[in-house]
């Protein structure tokens, strides 16, 4: 097995050519920890969440995402503001392109719903250490599969505060002085 395939996506680039296939996970984590140096999700300065309602037209949601250069939008209930799911904008563009949905369809036809039954959710708050966020993106910390983004909430999960993406984390590491 090559060292690149033994490491999570993007890890090889950050660890550099000295990364070795037999490097223990704790050593990899400590490499990331030295990059993060105690930083939390708040240090990513995630933009405020932009939410759509299930009845909004897809065209409106897409325009809102384009205006803010967002790759994911949360979808909330019109009545309770409860988090129902999300729109993955690259996926939405593909659905529009292949005709699965139209721009005048409602968001609920294209949104991806959160699985509620039998799932354990990892709460991501502004105080979550970036090591935990990175592990969440790679499928760890209660995750069963890699994630592209995290919904950042308050500790009680009452309010959506923002959305953090893998790209946000990678940019943070790149701009952080060594």
How would you portray this structure in words?
With 178 residues, the protein is α+β, with helices and mostly antiparallel strands. The chain has helices at residues 3-6, 11-15, 25-36, 41-44, 58-68, 89-97, 130-137, 166-175, and strands at residues 51-52, 72-76, 83-88, 112-113, 149-153, 160-165. The strands form two sheets. Strands 1-2-3-4 form a four-stranded mixed β-sheet. Strands 5-6 form a two-stranded antiparallel ribbon. A hairpin with a 6-residue loop joins strand 2 and strand 3. The longest helix is centred in the N-terminal third of the chain and has 12 residues, at 25-36.
Q: Biggest β-sheet: count, sense, barrel? A: 4 strands, mixed
Ranges where pLDDT stays below 50 over 5 or more residues in a row are: 1-23
Strand order of the largest sheet: 1-2-3-4
Average pLDDT level? 79
Give the total of beta strands: 6
Q: Briefly note the structural class of the backbone.
A: alpha+beta
Strand content: 5-15%
Integer-rounded radius of gyration? 18 Å
User: Percent range for helical residues?
Assistant: 25-40%
Shape: globular
SS element count, helices? 8
In N-to-C order, the SSE pattern is HHHHEHEEHEHEEH
Terminus-to-terminus distance: 29 Å
Brief write-up:
This protein has eight helices and six strands. It is an alpha+beta fold and 178 residues long. It has a four-stranded mixed sheet. Strands 5-6 form a two-stranded antiparallel sheet.
How do the helices and strands line up, and which of them pair or pack?
Blueprint lengths: L2 H4 L4 H5 L9 H12 L4 H4 L6 E2 L5 H11 L3 E5 L6 E6 H9 L14 E2 L16 H8 L11 E5 L6 E6 H10 L3
Parallel strand pairs: 1-2
Antiparallel strand pairs: 2-3, 3-4, 5-6
